[in-house]
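Supplementary Methods. Inverse-folding protocol.

Structures were first reduced to a discrete structure-token string of length 463. This string, shown here, constituted the complete conditioning input.
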């Protein structure tokens, strides 16, 4: 029986896509290999949010082809949707399948001969020409590159493929499955390529979410992480529209999941109702990840973000006041075109004043086809990297101060994996890494007394 191996790059949503691809390939009769070196078919499920993400994918293609020259390599995901010709020209690539046709990966990988029948029609999204940004005609690509290439209009794409993806390193350690319930994005941030490669926002139906969640509960999993490309927009594509908090409330009412963790939700979607729901339920992790990007009003406007700094600060303070011990994190970008020293300091000062417990700091990466790629006053790389360092140091200080608050206290934690014979890694309800003495099985809820601080975590004794 031919073996397959799926490697996914990037965000939680891409990881969930990868799990769905594994389902597809297994359904087609392939067996799952333990590594790319052992596989007959390797599927690379790519990211393209930065130039570094593209580079990582290309490096993986070259390494796999070098180490296993006879394996067939399929490249899918966001990079495949954005730049299929570039990928198809790389040695070793057999197929390039965009997000527009990711639901056919299993069919393509197992077909003896596959002749695509695609009618890639122009759409009226994102462009005066009538075609979306980065629209690729299948007919043009297939004739000009050596690999089989199937990429169409992502804005005509209505499929939402996803399967739970797990956070463990082995079967015995799998825990905290990530369940993608939404894909695509209707925002048009000037730096972001994602709408062009994932299409419009679309949501998983409530009944299917409940079905997937109950299956996970039946399998013994105790914490589920809800994810999406723009998670807070879940349900807005339904008729009549539904709100994300309706989905969360329904999960509480119709599943036995012990803990729901909500991944990234835009500030506009942290409604008073959602804050009250998270605050009031012990079954929802006290954790809010609220993308910021910049604390400078001028930069936020250039980014085409839909909120102003004072709106954002109001949301964060509401969350903090409702849940003083909650983890509160944000994505922050440095080096956006036009970010002067003064505007960066404005952003840094804004961040310093808010009760963040961690930050994900990114250096701006110009993406072809986005409005920001052509903006003047691009920031030199060395300047952007220095700003990244400054914010990472600020984040580390905030995280240390947050962790110090829990010395001597009791936290509820879920065990993740054993690091060695003497240590088990766990995660608290409020998103703190905890190290516990001894070997403790994964997927166990424990109460832990915090006894000391480590470099970026807490040290605890099980009670």
């Amino acid at each position: 029986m031919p073996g397959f191996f799926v490697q996914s790059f990037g965000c939680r949503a891409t990881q969930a896509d990868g799990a769905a691809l594994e389902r597809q390939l297994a359904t087609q009769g392939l067996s799952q290999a333990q590594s790319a070196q052992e596989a007959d078919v390797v599927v690379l499920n790519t990211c393209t949010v930065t130039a570094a993400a593209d580079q990582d994918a290309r490096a993986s293609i070259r390494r796999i082809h070098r180490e296993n020259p006879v394996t067939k390599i399929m490249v899918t995901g966001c990079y495949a949707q954005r730049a299929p010709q570039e990928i198809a020209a790389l040695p070793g690539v057999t197929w390039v399948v965009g997000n527009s046709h990711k639901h056919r990966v299993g069919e393509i990988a197992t077909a003896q001969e596959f002749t695509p029948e695609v009618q890639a029609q122009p759409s009226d999204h994102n462009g005066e020409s009538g075609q979306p940004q980065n629209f690729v005609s299948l007919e043009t690509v297939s004739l000009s590159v050596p690999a089989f290439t199937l990429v169409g209009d992502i804005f005509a794409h209505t499929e939402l493929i996803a399967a739970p993806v797990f956070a463990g390193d082995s079967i015995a350690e799998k825990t905290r499955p990530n369940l993608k319930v939404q894909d695509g994005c209707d925002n048009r941030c000037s730096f972001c390529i994602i709408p062009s490669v994932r299409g419009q926002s679309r949501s998983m139906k409530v009944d299917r979410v409940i079905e997937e969640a109950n299956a996970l509960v039946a399998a013994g999993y105790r914490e589920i992480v809800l994810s999406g490309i723009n998670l807070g927009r879940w349900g807005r594509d339904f008729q009549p529209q539904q709100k994300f908090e309706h989905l969360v409330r329904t999960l509480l009412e119709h599943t036995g999941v012990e803990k729901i963790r909500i991944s990234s939700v835009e500030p506009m979607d942290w409604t008073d109702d959602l804050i009250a729901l998270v605050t009031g339920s012990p079954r929802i992790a006290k954790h809010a990840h609220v993308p910021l990007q910049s604390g400078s009003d001028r930069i936020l406007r250039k980014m085409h973000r839909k909120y102003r700094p004072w709106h954002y600060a109001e949301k964060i303070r509401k969350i903090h006041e409702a849940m003083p011990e909650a983890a509160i994190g944000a994505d922050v970008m440095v080096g956006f075109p036009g970010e002067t020293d003064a505007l960066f300091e404005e952003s840094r000062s804004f961040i310093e004043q808010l009760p963040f417990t961690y930050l994900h700091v990114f250096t701006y990466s110009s993406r072809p086809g986005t409005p920001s790629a052509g903006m003047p006053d691009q920031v030199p790389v060395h300047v952007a990297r220095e700003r990244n360092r400054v914010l990472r140091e600020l984040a580390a200080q905030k995280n240390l101060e947050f962790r110090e608050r829990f010395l001597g206290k009791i936290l509820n934690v879920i065990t993740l994996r054993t690091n060695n014979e003497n240590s088990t890694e766990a995660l608290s309800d409020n998103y703190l890494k905890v190290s516990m003495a001894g070997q403790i099985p994964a997927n166990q809820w424990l109460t832990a007394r915090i006894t000391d601080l480590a470099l970026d975590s807490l040290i605890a004794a099980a009670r």
